[in-house]
């Protein structure tokens, strides 16, 4: 889809459809909406008076212009109450409106800068929200479908603004929105792929393409190099699969220093059967998405490289399958991590924390100042927070707060969970330094604490996206399937840290 900003009068703009907006409770029509109402012989004001158009959030009213305007259709989109408008609500409104118009085979859409100036929201912010809402809301994954879709795709979206002085801000927001939405789409595409098309080797291909396209440094450790580094936890998980494990490192250098300001770690179990501790067969296919953390981190690096913040970032993606087999890891086995800590295996289905252990060990070895890891780690987090909110855990409150604030800006909901020392008792082993699961109670917390053991004193935040990485029903700008969470949060975080 081609997206542009232009100066003009939207009532005179030629497109298959134009979108204008109305706040709930508005006493009269103003601006572009009033001009369009006049051109349509009062059709909009009559529908408002009759109560059909209320301006409620997400409400869409389609009116055919019948040659009274250059545009063929007008959509009056409700923005809800003006005092409650947020950037994320605009994303959702745009996504819903664009999907409705796509279903009517609309190819070109023009919109006003929806809600700009209301509730303190800037033109740059609004443009970013419009672009993200449109791109993410119109997303489809049809790579393996041979049948033609029932409708075409929207080919053109134009933001039409009457005031020339706002154009620069709109263009800046457009560019950032395209970068963040594009990165989110990359993550969605990777997660939506079946596991036979997204093996650890395929993840290397994706990371290498990102590095080539955007000028990142890339390094891939093979099994022999992992053995030399003593990555026994990662290799223990990998030993049941015929697919070779990969340890992917991406580096972005945004300032003239050697130190690593932040390391992003993404769990990449490209398929998780549970290993010997086999999962139930129902919905096991969803475990193709157990590499969502790794996909999010690779995609985040693509966006960072385009935005060019003044910060040094390393990304670490440990990638393997977790499968049963004659050589697979077994309950009661003991593994030794890269840092030398021994781990008793209680369940082979608690494997994500094992590969993160060696990934965090690698990050610490290279002297990183901060670590944020992203993982579809526990079903317990889904029980606690459902599919709406990502669980946040950490040993450094300032960094936790920065992550949550970055999520709020992105519209990706985050909630801090407790990691009191008392929970550590559940992870104690009588035969090793630590065991890989603390049992059913507080499962998301004890899993996070296990990972935290390998962060040491380094400021660290863990994001459990087990509930938010995929959804089974489209909502706002998140389409059924992979969500791309938390790419935009991570980008916001890195940009924010660069500005401090």
List descriptors:
9-stranded mixed β-sheet, Leucine Aminopeptidase, subunit E, domain 1, 500 residues, elongated, Aminopeptidase, single chain, 14 helices, alpha/beta
- The assigned structural class equals alpha/beta
Main sheet: strands, sense, barrel: 9 strands, mixed
What level of helicity do the residues show? 25-40%
Give the CA-based shape: elongated
CATH architecture assignment of the largest domain? 3-Layer(aba) Sandwich
Query: Kindly, what is the distance between the CA atoms of the first and last residues, rounded to a whole number of angstroms?
Result: 35 Å
- Rg, Cα atoms, Å: 24 Å
**Number of DSSP helical runs:** 14
Question: Which class of the largest domain in CATH terms?
Answer: Alpha Beta
CATH topology of the largest domain: Aminopeptidase
Could you describe the 3D structure shown?
Helices cover 35% and strands 19% of the residues. The chain has 500 residues and is of the alpha/beta class. It folds into two domains: 179 residues, Leucine Aminopeptidase, subunit E, domain 1 (3-Layer(aba) Sandwich); 305 residues, Zn peptidases (Aminopeptidase, 3-Layer(aba) Sandwich), CATH 3.40.630. Strands 7, 8, 9, 10, 11, 14, 15, 16 and 18 form a nine-stranded mixed β-sheet that branches. Strands 1-6-5-2-4-3 form a six-stranded mixed β-sheet, with helices on one face. Helix 3 crosses helix 4 and helix 10 runs parallel beside helix 13. The radius of gyration is 24 Å and the shape is elongated.
Can you summarize this structure?
This protein is α/β, with parallel strands linked by helices and 500 residues long.
């Amino acid at each position: 889809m081609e997206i542009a900003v232009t100066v003009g009068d939207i009532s005179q703009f030629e497109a298959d459809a134009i979108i204008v907006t109305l706040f709930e409770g508005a006493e009269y029509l103003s601006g572009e909406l009033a001009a369009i109402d006049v051109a349509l012989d009062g059709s909009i004001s009559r529908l408002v008076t009759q109560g059909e158009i209320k301006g409620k959030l997400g409400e869409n009213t389609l009116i055919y212009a019948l040659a009274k305007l250059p545009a063929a259709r007008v959509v009056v989109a409700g923005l809800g109450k003006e005092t409650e408008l947020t950037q994320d609500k605009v994303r959702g409104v745009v996504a819903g409106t664009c999907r409705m118009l796509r279903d009517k085979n609309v190819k070109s859409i023009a919109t006003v800068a929806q809600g700009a100036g209301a509730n303190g929201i800037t033109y740059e912010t609004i443009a970013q929200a419009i672009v993200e809402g449109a791109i993410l809301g119109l997303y489809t994954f049809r790579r393996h479908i041979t049948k033609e879709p029932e409708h075409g795709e929207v080919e053109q979206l134009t933001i039409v603004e009457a005031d020339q002085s706002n154009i620069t801000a709109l263009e800046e927001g457009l560019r950032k929105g395209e970068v963040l939405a594009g990165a989110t789409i990359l993550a969605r595409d990777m997660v939506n792929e079946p596991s036979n098309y997204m093996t650890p080797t395929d993840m290397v291909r994706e990371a290498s393409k990102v590095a080539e396209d955007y000028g990142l440094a890339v390094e891939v450790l093979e099994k022999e190099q992992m053995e030399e580094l003593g990555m026994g936890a990662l290799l223990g998980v990998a030993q049941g699969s015929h697919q070779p494990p990969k340890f992917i490192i991406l580096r972005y250098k945004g300032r003239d220093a050697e130190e690593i300001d932040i390391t992003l770690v993404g769990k990449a179990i490209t398929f998780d059967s549970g290993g010997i501790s086999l999962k139930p067969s129902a919905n096991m296919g969803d475990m193709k998405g157990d590499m969502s953390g790794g996909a999010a981190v690779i995609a985040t690096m693509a966006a960072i490289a385009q935005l060019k913040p003044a910060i040094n970032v390393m990304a670490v993606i440990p990638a393997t399958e977790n499968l049963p087999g004659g050589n697979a890891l077994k309950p009661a086995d003991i593994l030794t991590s890269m840092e030398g800590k021994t781990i008793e295996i209680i369940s082979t289905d608690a494997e994500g924390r094992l590969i993160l252990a060696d990934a965090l060990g690698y990050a610490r070895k290279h002297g990183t100042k901060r670590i944020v890891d992203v993982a579809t780690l526990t079903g317990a987090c889904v029980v606690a927070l459902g599919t709406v909110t990502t669980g946040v855990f950490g040993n450094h409150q300032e960094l936790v707060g920065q992550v949550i604030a970055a999520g709020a800006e992105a519209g990706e909901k985050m909630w801090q969970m407790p990691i009191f020392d008392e929970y550590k008792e559940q992870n104690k082993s009588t035969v090793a330094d630590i065991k890989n699961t603390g049992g059913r109670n507080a499962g998301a917390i004890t899993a996070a604490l296990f990972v935290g053991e390998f962060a040491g004193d380094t400021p660290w935040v863990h994001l459990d996206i087990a509930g938010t990485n995929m959804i089974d029903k489209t909502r706002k700008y998140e389409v059924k399937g992979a969500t791309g969470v938390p790419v935009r949060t991570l980008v916001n975080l890195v940009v924010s840290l660069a500005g401090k």
